[in-house]
Amino acid sequence: MAKKIVICIDGTNNQIGERPTNVLRLYMGLRKDATQAAHYILGVGSANSTQILGALRQQFWSVLGMGFGLGLEDDVLNAYRYLCRTYDGAGLPDRRPDHERDRIYIAGFSRGAYGARVLAGFIHNFGLVTPDQLHLIAPVFRAYRRITDADGGESHDTVFRAMREYDAALRPQPVPIRSLLLWDTVSSMIRFRRPWRNLARHGSLIEFGTHANVNANGSVRIVLHALAIDEKRSLFRPQLWAERADAPPRYHGNRFKRQGSERRQYVRQRWFAGYHSDIGGSPLEDEAGIGKITLLWMLDTLAAIEAEADAEDRAIALATGNWAAPEPGLALYRGHRTNYWEGGSRKTTPGGRAYSKADPRAPIHDSHRPGGLATLAWHAFEIVPKSIARRAPGRPAWVRRGLWKWYLPLKEPRVIPHVPDNPAFHAVDASVWVRHAACPDYRPEALASRRPAEET
């Protein structure tokens, strides 16, 4: 029987406790049975410990995970191994997306959202192996990482040679990915490689690591991305899904782009009021009303788009007489949504807090104001010069920020891209305008050029 497999990758230092993220909420609410499986991965640096040294070590690993992405690739391979053991798609004919059996959904928050995109990129470039081949997968992943680590002067054949050699030896199965469910993707993986080349190109001794197909991926049918309007930390710049200037994004179900396999790829990047933690749902439960908005938007939009995608696939597949699809959307435990996400329960959390409901006027939590050493660190990063060459497009040319080849972030607001031909690609959620009207002091700089009538 075909099933849905949901991978949930949490953000740095996020874990089970009084501040569950939407990724954890999703995992807790998902029904687990023969038709749907789920796998949850704690955020980097979140291993619980009651020992002082353990707590210090946890903070140390959290910092390394946040700045250098340390541990993220281990989480990706953890999820990959689970998929290889769980996915049932052997013997699918012709490697076509309309013949998929099990459906793969990958959810993530913060750097966990980046990890979700890395996992999807690795599957796109390689596929899934059989469980008895998993001991060989680490060098394959290193070959995948080399695609973006390689020097620009190397030929395409040289860069991809190792991947193709592993492909020939292991014969992995190309599989489609049904959806990426992302909350405020950030990466900021610092690499100390090729310093002089980086200095010449970017005015900086460091480079930021990335992976192949994390910004565009033809194996993913649906991309949903909830983004924070109010976040200003320089290390938390959003990693957006790429817009194609020449054509709308297309879906092929694998990397081969065979004739007749092309479908529409659905991309929705939605902007919500709040900071990074608000969008991910990680404030204390009774203050998580903004996070409930993004969670419900994610699930409702997924179900609606899946129905539309199934209709497209059905029209194509009827010609071959081969069509079967599960119900759109993800299955939840009975009453879970109403009781815990829509505020219908009188129960409280183990810590005694009431379950919040979606509320556009709920508190938002300034990332620069929680207090303590973390706050001092975030403030310090705002006066560290950054390369203008790496500054996000669309920024105003503020002279007070410019320092020749560098600029001072100084809590620079995010920019919401405008895509005239596809307004849904970057849209401001209706809940933002509700807050805007109800709260006279809510006037974020990122909204200055947007109007409610422009949104879809």
What does this structure look like?
The structure is a single chain. The chain has a domain of 294 residues: Rossmann fold. 33% of the residues lie in helices and 13% in strands. It is built from twelve helices and 14 strands. A hairpin with a 2-residue loop joins strand 12 and strand 13.
Short key terms for the protein model shown above:
alpha/beta; 14 strands; 456 residues; globular; Rossmann fold
Please give the share of residues in helix: 25-40%
Proportion of beta-strand residues = 5-15%
Class derived from helix and strand content: alpha/beta
- Number of beta-strand segments: 14
Rg is 22 Å
Unreliable sequence segments: 48-53, 90-98
Q: Looking at CATH, which topology of the domain at 4-128 and 173-341 would you report?
A: Rossmann fold
General form: globular
**Which architecture of the domain at 4-128 and 173-341 per CATH?**
3-Layer(aba) Sandwich
Strand order of the largest sheet: 2-1-3-4-7-10-14
Question: What is the CATH class of the domain at 4-128 and 173-341?
Answer: Alpha Beta
The average pLDDT score comes to 83
Q: Give the CA-CA distance, first to last residue.
A: 38 Å
The number of helices is 12
Order of helices and strands: EHEHHEHHHEEHEEEEEHHHHEEEEH
Main beta-sheet strand count, sense and barrel state? 7 strands, parallel
